[in-house]
Design a protein that fits this description.
single chain, alpha/beta, TIM Barrel, eight-stranded parallel barrel, two-stranded antiparallel ribbon, 15 helices, 10 strands, about 15% strand
């Protein structure tokens, strides 16, 4: 991000609020899909939901499939809505879930949106994983058609390409969580358990910055969630400047919660906000909309990827910031 040494801003007035799926958030931040179903998930999800309510954040639950098969496990998901009565809550289910199950997942937590996760590399790395993915796009189109809430197509660590986004867009999806490489590596996790893949596959996938750039270059009327390796406010600022609308954090927050407790994670969220506001201040962005207009110089592997894919990298570097609207 290109610095602005004369921002003419008051830090207290730098605005990090966002309206997302009809809910007002104090930060462009979702505590992303983590867990559910297991014994400790009730405590984890309850704690995260209380923090989401306290700080005005969104929250997504982990895959609800296990609770749809065993209703006794549903409480580890329902706790999220119980602890965050009026906040943004997202349901989560596999992209191949039949429509009636998807509707049950939404109803279970009174969700404001439904994440449908795409995790083909993870499935292929599992001995017991799925091998037949035919009809997936048609199923997603049906979910988008019948769902009473918006559908969010979510990768789980391997990134979304613009070709995938375009096919999903044509199927009726308008929200995309890129879930890029850089966060939790599910191939590495499953490889350690099954041994089906070797180390050559550890780096599989599209890194989060490259994925965000690909999707934002389409100029479609879509909403982009940047997740996968987002850990702090500066990461969030860079992602939004690149084209994301909101970011998702999962593993980083979970680690702090389980190792240090709720108070430590609450302080981390405050630091996240301060670092985001500071990044905005130092680039002259008074709002998140301004942040998406500041000049951004992209380098390294991301620049190489973008230019190789035929995307004009100058469309970010040559922006003029807030002044272009004056």
């Amino acid at each position: 991000m290109v610095p602005d040494s004369l921002p003419e801003l008051n830090l207290e007035e730098v605005d990090t609020t966002i309206s997302f799926l009809g809910k007002e958030l104090s930060l462009p931040l979702i505590i992303n899909a983590i867990t559910g179903g297991v014994d400790e998930a009730l405590v984890i999800n309850g704690s995260l939901a209380r923090l989401a309510a306290q700080h005005g954040l969104g929250m997504a639950v982990g895959s609800q499939t296990i609770a749809l098969d065993d209703n006794e496990l549903a409480n580890s998901f329902k706790i999220v809505r119980k602890e965050n009565r009026d906040g943004l809550v997202l349901a989560n289910i596999a992209a191949n879930a039949k429509p009636p199950l998807a509707l049950q997942a939404i109803e279970m937590i009174e969700a404001d949106g439904l994440q449908i996760h795409l995790n083909i590399p993870q499935e292929l790395a599992m001995k017991e994983g799925d091998r037949d993915f035919r009809g997936l796009l048609d199923n997603i189109a049906e979910l988008a058609r019948i769902a009473p809430v918006p559908i969010i197509a979510k990768e789980v660590g391997f990134g979304l390409s613009r070709e995938t986004c375009q096919r999903l867009y044509e199927a009726g999806v308008r929200l995309f969580d890129v879930g890029g490489r850089g966060g939790t590596n599910f191939i590495a996790i499953e490889q350690a358990r099954s041994g089906l893949f070797n180390d050559d596959f550890i780096s599989w996938g599209l890194p989060t910055p490259a994925s965000v750039a690909e999707l934002s270059s389409l100029r479609f009327p879509i909403i982009i969630v940047a997740s996968g390796g987002i850990r702090g406010g500066l990461d969030a600022a860079k992602a939004i400047a690149l084209g994301a609308d909101i970011v998702g954090v999962a593993g980083h927050f979970l680690k702090i919660l389980t190792e240090q407790g709720m108070n430590a994670l609450s302080e981390e969220i405050k630091v996240f906000q301060y670092h985001l506001k500071s990044s905005m201040m130092m680039t002259g962005a008074a709002s998140l909309a301004d942040l998406k207009r500041i000049p951004l110089v992209i380098g390294g592997n991301t620049a190489h990827w973008i230019t190789t894919r035929g995307i004009d990298i100058c469309s970010w570097a040559c922006r003029t910031g807030r002044q272009e609207n004056s």
